[in-house]
Amino acid sequence: MAVTLKKVLTLRTVVSTSAGMAMATSCYLAGLQVAIMVEGELAWISILVSGVFCLLSAMCFSELTSLYPSAAGIKLFMQNAFNEKTAVSIAMFYVVLGISMVGAESYLLSSVMLDTVGVIASPMLDRFLWQIVFILFVGYINFKGVKITGRLQDVLTYSMLSFLIGVSIYALAVKGIDISSALKSPTFTLKNVMNAAAVGVFMYVGFEWVTPLAEETEDYRMIGKGMMYAVGLLSVTYALFVVAMYTGLTKKQLMSGTSIPHILFARNMFGTWGAFAFIIMSILASVTSFNAGLLNTSRYVYAMARDDTLPRFFSRLHPDHATPWVAILSLVIFSVLVSLAILFTGKYMFIIMMAAALECFIYVVMALSVIRLRKKFPDSPRAFKVPLGNTIPVVTIVVFSVLMIGLISDTTRDYTGNVLFHNYWVGLVMAMFAGLCVMYTLVVVPRFKLAALKRASLRKKRRPSRSKPGKEGT
Amino acid sequence: MATSDEIMEALADFKEQCNNNKRLRRMQRDWTKLIHFVAEDTGDTFTMDVVKGEIVSFATGRNGTPDIIVTASSEDLCDMFWGDLNPSQKYLDGEIRVKGSQEDVMRLDAITMIIWPEV
Questions:
Q1: What is the pLDDT of residue A472?
Q2: Helical pair A43-67 and A391-408, crossing angle rounded to 10 deg
Q3: Run of H or E including A237
Q4: Domain containing A302 — which CATH number?
Q5: What span, in angstroms and rounded, lies between the C-alpha atoms of B114 and B106?
Q6: Based on the structure, what is the number of domains in chain A?
Q7: Per-residue pLDDT tens digits for B23-61
């Protein structure tokens, strides 16, 4: 007999959560970078291409979630598809690099605040303080266990999407776009479109973080459906907005390498009030996105500590709020360190590139997991199965591998063509982190597991009479 | 397999451990939930009513509309209530399945962690 829960998530909230997690301030900058890489008026092509690719990946996530509808999701998929060591290494790599995005997000938000409030002490100090305020605020609400309710998430996400679509249509109608001359531009090449699509993947980062909510739905297929709707909505919104933003910026603004293109666009188009609306939206998008990221990662760190994969102190809970305060504090400190690194180097685009490459990597692993699990457990019930056999998972593997390689072998440039950095550095930093995660899993984790086994062997069992396996209780 | 009586005996001990733990009662003071437990191998079901962190009742069968549904083998349920099993590990391995919010999943695990910190 099927029993329903008192509270279940609706499809509307699954879509808003998935899209809301992806929408952040850094998406505007990634969008501008896409526009710079191809001819701006044609940026929508790369954005839609990355959206279609993300849809393929969303289908793979849907099948995996329908097979293992658990908050332990990604680790469970990999553990069953490969083995525990691979799962722990990749999950740790994903969490560490994922939380690094907070560094870029806080830097960009501090740029927004500097532009709004102006310089109080010095640009560097002000920026640092805004970054800290942002990270501490999100850390605090996580520590207090404040949850963004489904209804609030619905209101926030759908308002932001409608606002962006409305503003874009207005801006495009006023400014107009010249597609025919853009098509003749030397920067509009297949290679550039694909490399820009790889960067465009960043704009969808986080849509899959809705998978841990599978346990809160009545029908597991709803998560898959929700992810696909969210990717579709994001594709249309971003495609419209990036082109509108590009056409709404002056040449001088494009050449300045601004980190707040959306604010400048809003000011150009709608004056101070327009900029103010975008500032509010930027803050809300960053806070909701980072809050969800910190919530998921801190719970994951807690679970890893309970599983004796991380030191046990990470599983400590606050006596009043029942939140994993050590995990939250550690992630907050890590975020502050990453923000400091970005503050001193100014290389926020580096983190964006890294996050895009990481996401490509995870999508490849998830598609591989689909194929492996189909082979290992062909008869396990799946509420959703990706159609056309292994074609879509194989295409996903090929596409995201090519995008990742293309991204890492490319060079990041600004509007005027100046080299910002060579992307092989992104690959090197990622390889270094991956190496550290693998070493940790191979060298440190077995020690924790051994210590846990010793603890268990010393502990007296409390259960008074144990039943023999296969027999009714004695 | 553990019988329904064995699980009920484990639940009685679990209730005593939880309700007598001051730290747990303080942490869960705003936690009011109706929880269903399902032993998938025997088909036995149990209902636990938690009001402001206190387990006020438990019984066999499914009563009311739950906030959380925990599904596991009867052995795992029994061991979990006696504090002989780390539910987190079983959950991460997919052997214990929970329907409910992420916060509730963690709160459930927190109970075990606080009353039996060494598990």
A1: 44
A2: 130
A3: helix A221-248
A4: 1.20.1740.10
A5: 12
A6: 1
A7: 999 999 999 999 999 999 999 999 999 999 999 999 999
Domain that holds residue A400: 11-454
Tokens (6 digits) for A258: 């601004």
Task: Answer yes or no: is A440 within a domain.
Answer: yes
The per-residue pLDDT for A466 is: 58
Asked if B15 reaches chain A (Cβ–Cβ under 8 Å), the answer is no
Q: Would residue A17 count as lying in a domain?
A: yes
pLDDT of residue A455: 85
Residues of chain B with C-beta less than 8 angstroms from the C-beta of A320: 26-27
Asked if the structure places residue A464 within a domain, the reply is no
User: Considering the domain B4-113, what is its CATH architecture?
Assistant: 2-Layer Sandwich (3.30)
- Digit-coded pLDDT (tens) for B67-80: 999 999 999 999 99
Residue A5 lies in a domain: no
Q: Which of 91-110 (B) contact A at CB < 8 A?
A: 91-94, 97-103, 105-107, 109-110
Name residue A412's beta-bridge partners.
A421
Angle at B71 between CA B69 and CA B74, to 5 degrees: 135
Whether ipTM exceeds 0.95: no
B103 neighbourhood in chain A, CB within 8 Å: 145, 147
Could you say which residues of chain A have pLDDT below 50? 1, 470-474
